[in-house]
Amino acid sequence: MPFRRFFDRGAKREAPSADDPPTADEMEESVAADEQVEDEDPSEEAEWAGEDAAPEEATDIDWHARAIAILPTGASTGSKRAEALYGSASTPAPTHYIQAAGCRLVDTSGNSLVDCTMALGAVALGYAEPTVQEAVFAAVAHGNVAGLSDPREAIVAERLCDHVPCGEMAQFFKTGAEAVSAAVRIARTYTGRDLVIGSGYFGWHDWSSDSAGVPDAVRSLYRSMAFDDLDALDTSVRGAGDRLAAIVIEPMVERMPSEVWIRKARELATLLGAVLIFDEMKTGFRLRRGGYQELTGITPDLAVFGKALANGFPLAAVVGRRDVMDAARRTWISSTLAGESVGLAAANAVLDVHESADVCAALASTGQAMRAGVTAAIAASGIEGVTVEGLDPMWLLRFDEPRRQTRFLELAASHGVLFKRGAYNYAATAHDEAAIAEIEAAASASFVELRDEEQHRE
Ligand SMILES: Cc1ncc(COP(=O)(O)O)c(C=O)c1O
Q1: In a domain, 259, yes or no
Q2: Is the pLDDT assigned to residue 91 strictly greater than 60?
Q3: Confidence tier at 67 by pLDDT (50, 70, 90)
Q4: Domain end among 300, 321, 356
Q5: Residue nearest to ligand 1 atom 13, measured at CA
Q6: CATH number for the domain harbouring residue 412
Q7: Residue 451: inside a domain, yes or no?
Q8: Looking at 356, 380, 401, which one is the last position of a domain?
Q9: CB-based contacts of 358: which residues, under 8 Å, 6+ apart?
Q10: pLDDT value for 457
Q11: How far is the CA of 304 from the centre of ligand 1 (A)?
Q12: Over the stretch 344-362, which tens digit does the pLDDT of each residue have?
């Protein structure tokens, strides 16, 4: 019963003594011991379920309904709302999980699914990756926060700067949006200017958002420009004039941009004394360790990393040129848990993995195999209006009609594979041959069923 291991883990571990923190070997034994406690004491699960539910009954709880009743958007991560997952708020497909390991998750009904979304690209090595877990458990056992800083903050900053071409200094955060906001604050402080132009998605914060609740005065300081569009870049830069503080670019959106566009942004920022910021949240530690800038040799002044950097643990970073980063001392950028140890320990372990193997090459070849399997499934079914796009390590399915996509995603989930709606499927090193075969088989069955349903409707 998958519930058990999930909820027993940690609850039965004895608190370590501060004088005698456990060694890595002891931590391993402790985890192994946790894994043996399966089938004991279901009472914790009942507590977790918030009622006197036996574990078996927990599978009957409608977590989707329960979440909608108490969370205003149904899921605090927007892309995990039912509408975002499947394109339908009333989907029968799974919305909640109880366990994730490698490239697989177990949903709240106890079904196992191969996950192609990898937590929105936050995970590139696999869920619960053992070396990262071990580092995290050890960090927790030693006390993950205190009144002083963890030395890992300096260590991970040094190591990160070694891998990122623009990296001379770094500062840590917990979320991507927080880190990009900080980069923009640093750029504004450095230049003493206010206008920012940008292309891409940078998270939910006010400075780049046109959502309800953002004051017009704030909106007027940000101008969005089209991806890979030289004219839009020229017009936006000209419009900003001598108020241009920063050009912020997500350098890869579904495809590589023309180098001319990015080089032009680099030239204009230098010429006008503005700061060029690359958002490498998805490209960092995926396309290359150092992201798009390492791949192309085009170096921004500041860059933002997150997601795969800590393999799903909360950590993001701004890295960049020393003189620009130095402006952080002339403003106020801080949060209580920015230097908390779990994210740093995870990143430290992730960096070890990257330094011992070419993870990015593995992600590219794994992604290529995933794409090939899905492409073959499309061809074999003879279905039309569906294409596979993107890059190998981050690829996407494009449907001609949202309704068809919803049906396909629901069918695929029923066949044991979670694909991403309208955005990237991410390769992880944990997607092994068996998983890739399952992805192709589920895609194949789902495309055939979708085709047949559509033919019957005609
Ligand atoms: C390119 C990019 N920048 C920023 C963010 C925001 O990161 P977070 O959701 O961790 O705040 C995202 C999230 O998907 C992203 O893809």
Answers
A1: yes
A2: yes
A3: very high
A4: 356
A5: 203
A6: 3.90.1150.10
A7: yes
A8: 356
A9: none
A10: 84
A11: 10
A12: 999 999 999 999 999 999 9
